[in-house]
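Troubleshooting entry. The earlier prediction with magnesium ion gave an output that would not parse, so I re-checked the input for stray whitespace and re-submitted. Clean input:
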Amino acid sequence: MADIFKTPLKYLPGIGPKRAEVLERDLDLVTYLDLLHYFPYKYVDRTHIYRIRDIRADMPYIQLKGYIRDWQEVGQGRKRRLVGIFSDGTGSIELIWFRSLASIERMYQLGREYIIFGKPQFFNGSYSIVHPEIDDEEKLEGMTGGLMPLYNTSERMKSSGLSNRQMRQMLYTLLRALTPYLGETMPPWILHRAMLMSYPEAIVQIHFPDSTERLEGARRRLKFEELFFIQLKLQRMRLERRVAYQGYRMERVGALFNALYKEHLPFEPTGAQKRVLREIRSDMLSGIQMNRLVQGDVGSGKTLVALMAMLLCLDNGYQACMMAPTEILTRQHHIGLSELVAPLGIEVGLLLGSTPKRSRERILDRLASGELRMIVGTHALLEPAVQFDRLGLAIIDEQHRFGVEQRARLWGKNEGRILPHILIMSATPIPRTLAMTLYGDLDISIIDELPPGRKPIQTVHCFEERMYTVYNFIRSQVGEGRQIYVVFPMIEESEREDMRNLEQGLQRYREVFPEYNIVIVHGKMKPKEKEEHMQRFVSGQAQLLLATTVIEVGVNVPNASVMVIEGANRFGLSQLHQLRGRVGRGAAQSYCILVTGNELGEDAKRRVQIMVETNDGFEIAEQDLRLRGFGELEGTQQSGQQLSLRIANPTRDGEMISYARALVEELLAADPELRHPDHEALGRRLLELFHRDTNWGVIS
Ligand code: ADP
Ligand code: MG
């Protein structure tokens, strides 16, 4: 009868199809189990009953005990309301309703003792409570101990009869219905090791706690539970994939790899680059498909790691491709990689959306025949027409720009059950604990070291009214032979506004710097024109590059030493950090100047302050997470929703995530199929929890 947890909510007494629909639409709650795991967002202390005499306007929710002395209907039309005069012997207060006046009046009897609950307001010289909750004292027994749960509800829910009070009622009913079936899900050894409250107790206590202590125990248990099952799901997927698909075994470290490494590399790889390469290498020779995420801050040298991996692949007789999110970045990769591998006699193909038909066809032919061994491209690589002879490795740069589904399409590039190895490069530093939650089925490598000799970028904040100091600074830097980026804010929903910003900026900079060569880059440009402008900047002909955020990803001009960000308050933290990463790539001291108006909101102020204080991408990501909350972090929205965390918080529960993950690893090492009788409940719960998520299979 465990299936009772999967029962659709419309069958719960008192809900019905209408409300069930609202619950699904607004809260994504479909089954009994979903509702059971819809936890209160806070609790109100209902142990105390106040006297009306003691009411103050700044009080939160309070309880009163007394009786309704009189009903009055006042006002006309939309202002019509029902007022109940409520007394407790120490004074009176008005209870006010704007809806369902007649039925309210019918429902409660004058003179009978009630407990009322609500937030008092002071208005027109007297106290009142709007839409209070009213209960008989006896009826309250059992349902609320001291702490009363509050659930998040939407407007639509309230108007469909799903107020907080009704949510409580529903959960109460649900708990009663499920009590006989609430078994333990965790095996005894985990309960014992992690010192967890039992599941049935935790579930009751989270909704209707007896005390703050037991509530704490319940929260801890349910957080653990949530994180544990996510880990279990992800690790199981990974195991299944390993059984189902093989990966090419790439055992040789051959001529190409060695030649580049020993003879042609313009610099010594950093310790972190070497370590990550070792991790990749051991994946690629394991015979199991690699699914690895490489995280490294901007400028940490991910491209080199990618290139070495591609050479390994070529050395073993396979083809390799690398996919980047924009044409500019793809072209840069093409140029950079071509230069590095030219001495090895390797050609790097380039495939863009804008590649003309004739050259495209030639490229496709040479890919399919296996003659072209290495290629970089944009999304164009994903088109079905693109077929490889033996694709052994696919690299995805800046993964968060690629949809999960598109990544999976890469797998289809080879026939049969052998999949190409997948390497994802990300410059969006996700805090490790979060990465573990989101990408539990990926292996993660971190390049946590910048190439030597980099001077940390100096970041300053400057108000618009002192813009002349920025101009002076630009002039002195250009005087030293440096180049400058200026970025203008992107205004959401309005590309035209973007352009206006940029065009006005261009005029202004032309007036201030008539002697300089200024180029602009923006999203609306034709590729060819964009390329020309970029090229003038890359070659050093132009001193200033003005752009909207299109330069955000990946461009590499080591001689550029200043990044001016106008309207910096309009950018998110991770965007600012990405932009700043465009400078500081050469030997010169680099600067980032954040320009804003005088009026700054609290959050914007905080973002600017964080940028000024630190260069550390991981630190910034943590802060970003704190400011914006989980689920809004760039690149995680989609996965965040899939995880739909209800109680755990990856920012705060880092240690618990690691612990849960370790226990899952131990569990699956001993019993991968969850066959042991102690583990059967885990398998069942897994099915109940993830029955709707069809997308899990392609999360990597
Ligand atoms: P990202 O991680 O942002 O993709 P890149 O791969 O573009 O970084 O590398 C940034 C710059 O650092 C490039 O100019 C690259 O040539 C240089 N670089 C990479 N690795 C090293 C190294 N080990 N020593 C010195 N410079 C390096
Ligand atoms: Mg890069």
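This one parsed fine. The chain has four domains: 47-144, 220-245+644-699, 246-447, 458-614.
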